[in-house]
């Protein structure tokens, strides 16, 4: 079947206030009540409702790369799990520090790459000293917070490399490619060879409009983030995503809330985490509460899916807090609230943190299907408030993609990604092709050349 253009909704192509944008957005959403998956429909929004950011740049999980670079530092399995958790709570700072937005839909074969120069200064986690210390208070804890300097102009999408961080740094390289259009799936790979770390996975969401909120869940190919510690005998952690809700639509104040369960498992250390995000009441302000348990489990008989299922004898630590503010943990099976404040240790305080800037390849050497260059015409028109021009450029771009799809269909040639070996994969862990490895190896040397690769 030939590729069909996505449905669009005619709107007045003029600048709108935030309230006007929301009313337009709601009018569009109402046409999709009852649709099982908005993500698979991939309807096209008017340009004035879009954030001028490519989807592949927006989703990266490295909002605070310092936390990622610190994973695997400790020799103790429990401490390494806590390092993974510290990364987990910082990976989406964009929702803590900013507002929800709708980036551009990705095109098949589109790719994005960048580096982060991460500060190598995360406080060391050492629960042995903590448990033996007479003073394990949050205020004195070595886990008080990840200190990251607030930098002027620090945003989710940065068009130029940011200023060099003070102190020692480590380079983290990132590569992602849109590998499937129906369903929309992208593969990603994060590489930090200096620390012996890499992470990978597939990004795919399923979205449904309920009439008052949009529920966003992982798609069938999105099995989470897989973090591998190469220097720990390839110890691998699987971090699954909870469902989230984009609410506040009727109130005119969009906000992300989470009321679901997430899991982190490491079969090699036989340690598992259950994170229970608590549903806010319909009255009063959002609490964004989370409670969790870290415990010993059997990977061959992984049957514990709720916190109350875990026997006290298996519990290593418990967590509690506000996932938009501060998370604390306590050692042992007792509830966090049963411990005095001096026995509660802060694993992460999000308040002093900001979304980290990216280092990007120079525009003149970017490929035509590289996100920032591919969408540059739309981005520049939106930034200059030329919404009619942005819409026209966007329509032309999408039509070119549909023509490429028709040409592949005429030739009976299935699409093959350039940088990843699989379009999708049942175990959720995409492998790099030789070209993908070359791109990341060059990026580690701050070499953005694609000569001889594509």
Overview of the structural elements:
The chain has 454 residues and is an alpha+beta fold. It is built from eleven helices and 16 strands. The strands form two sheets. A twelve-stranded antiparallel beta sheet has the order 1-2-3-4-7-8-11-12-13-14-15-16, sandwiched between helices. Strands 5-6-9-10 form a four-stranded antiparallel beta sheet. Helix 9 (376-383) runs antiparallel to helix 10. The protein is globular.
Keywords:
twelve-stranded antiparallel β-sheet, Oxysterol-bd_CS, OSBP_sf, 454 residues, disordered N terminus, 16 strands, four-stranded antiparallel β-sheet, globular, alpha+beta
> Mean of residue pLDDT?
84
Detail the poorly predicted runs. 1-12, 134-164
Give the strand order, joined by hyphens, for the main sheet. Answer: 1-2-3-4-7-8-11-12-13-14-15-16
Largest sheet: 12 strands, antiparallel
- What class would the helix/strand composition place it in? alpha+beta
Percent in strands = 15-25%
What sort of overall outline do the alpha carbons produce when their principal axes are compared?
Answer: globular
Helix percent band: 10-25%
Order of helical and strand elements = HHHHHHEHEEEEEEEEEEEEEEEHHHH
Our Rg estimate from Cα atoms comes to 22 Å
Distance between the termini: 30 Å
Question: Total strand count, please?
Answer: 16
Q: What count of helical segments does DSSP give?
A: 11
Topology:
Elements: H1 18-29, H2 38-41, H3 55-58, H4 65-69, H5 77-90, H6 93-97, E1 111-119, H7 127-132, E2 169-180, E3 185-192, E4 197-203, E5 205-209, E6 214-218, E7 225-229, E8 235-239, E9 244-247, E10 255-258, E11 261-266, E12 271-277, E13 289-296, E14 315-322, E15 326-331, E16 345-349, H8 371-374, H9 376-383, H10 387-411, H11 434-444
Antiparallel strand pairs: 1-2, 2-3, 3-4, 4-7, 5-6, 6-9, 7-8, 8-11, 9-10, 11-12, 12-13, 13-14, 14-15, 15-16
């Amino acid at each position: 079947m030939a590729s069909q253009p996505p449905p669009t909704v005619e709107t007045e192509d003029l600048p709108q206030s935030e309230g006007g944008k929301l009313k337009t957005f709601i009018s569009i959403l109402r046409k999709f009540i009852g649709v099982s998956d908005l993500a698979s429909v991939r309807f096209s929004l008017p340009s004035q409702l879009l954030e001028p950011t490519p989807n592949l740049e927006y989703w990266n999980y490295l909002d605070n790369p310092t936390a990622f670079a610190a994973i695997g530092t400790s020799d103790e399995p429990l401490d390494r799990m806590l390092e993974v958790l510290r990364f987990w709570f910082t990976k989406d700072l964009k929702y803590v520090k900013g507002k929800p937005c709708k980036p551009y839909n990705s095109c098949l074969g589109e790719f994005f790459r960048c580096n982060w120069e991460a500060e190598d200064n995360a406080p060391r986690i050492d629960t042995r000293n903590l448990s033996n210390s007479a003073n394990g208070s949050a205020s004195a804890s070595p886990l008080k917070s990840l200190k990251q300097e607030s930098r002027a102009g620090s945003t989710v999408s940065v068009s130029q490399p940011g200023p060099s961080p003070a102190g020692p740094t480590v380079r983290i390289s990132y590569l992602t490619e849109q590998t499937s259009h129906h369903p929309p799936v992208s593969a990603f790979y994060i590489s930090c060879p200096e620390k012996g770390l890499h992470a990978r996975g597939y990004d795919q969401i399923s979205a449904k409009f309920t009439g008052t909120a949009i529920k966003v869940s992982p798609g069938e190919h999105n099995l989470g983030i897989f973090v591998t510690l190469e220097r720990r005998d390839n110890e691998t952690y699987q971090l699954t995503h909870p469902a989230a809700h984009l609410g506040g639509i009727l109130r005119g104040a969009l906000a992300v809330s989470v009321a679901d369960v997430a899991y982190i498992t490491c079969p090699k250390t036989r340690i598992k985490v259950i994170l229970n995000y608590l549903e806010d009441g319909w009255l009063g302000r959002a609490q964004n509460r989370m409670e969790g348990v870290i415990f010993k489990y059997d990977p061959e008989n992984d049957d514990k899916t709720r916190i109350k299922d875990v026997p006290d004898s298996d519990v290593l630590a418990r967590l509690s807090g506000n996932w938009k503010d501060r998370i604390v943990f306590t050692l042992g099976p007792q509830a966090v609230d049963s411990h005095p404040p001096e026995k509660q240790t802060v694993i992460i305080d999000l308040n002093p943190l900001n979304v980290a800037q990216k280092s990007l390849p120079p525009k003149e050497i970017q490929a035509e299907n590289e996100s920032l260059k591919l969408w540059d015409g739309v981005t520049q028109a939106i930034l200059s408030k030329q919404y009619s021009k942005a819409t026209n450029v966007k329509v032309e771009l999408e039509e070119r993609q549909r023509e490429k799809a028709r040409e592949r269909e005429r030739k009976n040639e299935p699409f093959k990604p350039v940088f990843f070996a699989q379009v999708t994969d049942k175990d959720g862990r995409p492998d790099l092709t030789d070209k993908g490895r070359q791109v990341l190896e060059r990026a580690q040397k701050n070499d953005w050349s694609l000569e001889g690769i594509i």
